[in-house]
Amino acid sequence: MIMKKITTSLLGLLAAGLTLAPAHAQELFEQQTLPNPDNVPSPVFPVPTERQMAWFETEFYGFSHYGPNTFNNVEWGNDRKPNPLEYRPETMPDCEQWVNAMKAAGMKAVIVICKHHDGFCLWPTESTDFNVLNSAGVGPQVDIPKLVSDACRKNGMKFGVYLSPWDASNAAYATPEYVQKVFMKQITELLTNYGDIFEIWFDGANGGSGYYGGDALTTRNIDKKSYYDWPNTMDSIHSLQPGAVVWGREFRWCGNEQGYSGATCWSNFDTNAVTSEKINNEGYEEGYEFIPSECDVRTSQKWFWHADEQIKTPEQLFKIYLECVGRNATLIMNCAPNTDGVLSDAVVESLEGLGELLEKRLSDNFALQATNVTADNVRTGGKYEAKNVTDGDKNTYWATNDDQTTGSVTIELPEEKTIHYVMLQEYIRLGQRVRSFRIEYSQDGSRWMQFASGTTIGYKRIVARANNTSSYGTGVKAKYIRVNITDSRACPLLSNIAIY
Length: 500
Hints:
With 500 residues, this protein is of the alpha/beta class. 24% of the residues lie in helices and 23% in strands. Residues 1-26 have low confidence and may be disordered.
């Protein structure tokens, strides 16, 4: 009888839509409101990792192609039978000279070739006999990654490595054995023995003709998307070097070797999509991965040193800088040492000239002395005011309210200045947002004239008068600069406006 009463009571509760549960279980299902007292904007995905942010902030760094090709007067060494004696330096390479010259140009890091497509290793590796220990001249004493990493640490520069996945000399290439016993072993040595690595640069070269341990020139092709087991390879890299960004996985090639990013350049991308030069150059606004762009370019007409090298002028290099770093991409600039193991006088002089131009044209930020900074819309929350764009703090930003995807910031200078460039930066930790902008200038704050216009901003956008990157020109006279965000994926967030 008692059991019947209990059953009846339970059926009554269920019929009423009620259930019995312990008090602690009821608490688990109580509705909670997460606090956001500062009204921080929601992220617009994709967003960068801390590793990618540190890479973006490096901005401009050097590349150093040096190896057997230097002595053989070729660009690719895959058509030659592997012979370590062809690497024959007569004097120790002056890697500190390389680093000093790149630093003088304004670079913050150096990436050195450790193994190119020919498979020759410029360090004493255990993965193959085709390395410096079996070379000629003073080659057996030369450990290029050690010399360059030591010079970088001495000069306050970051260090990175280039390792060609394709190996045109290794007998195991195109078999599973190569990836595990050769390629991964080389990665492990480079990421273990030379201190902190900020970037590991692979390459898009995808196999082809080579000697592969034999005498006959043969061809081996692989599916580069699957062969190298990139997901696990990248995990292994990050376990050894948590701060190292991975080429082709955490940043992308810009699509050309001439040193320009797209005037529209999204960091959003899709690594699994079919790409083209245009897509690599511009990215995908709707891409679901944060894979920003890196521009690679040569100071000469070739990657490796050749006696007939023709070095770009400082003005040409400055234009490249504006069209890479100034268009939401990083810039890796190749400087090729010669057979004496040094950069030529012409390279050094051009790099020094570039550094002087960057210092002269992009170091005196007039906006830091602004007397008044205003905006037509400021996000509620008390910390998103317009003055954040001129405070020199990368972690503060101006923002509009969520329902406002346009807005203007006006900067008043203490006096009229001659202006050549305006630099814009989004707070991209919360995603790249801006689709279009327009910059105006004025002498009196009433009559406005157009300075330039553009599409994307991203991490950094350096805008020249009328978007002319080819000529420094005479600039414009202005006391006021107004930046108008005319379209954005969500409320715009600007962390920095600089005026030069």
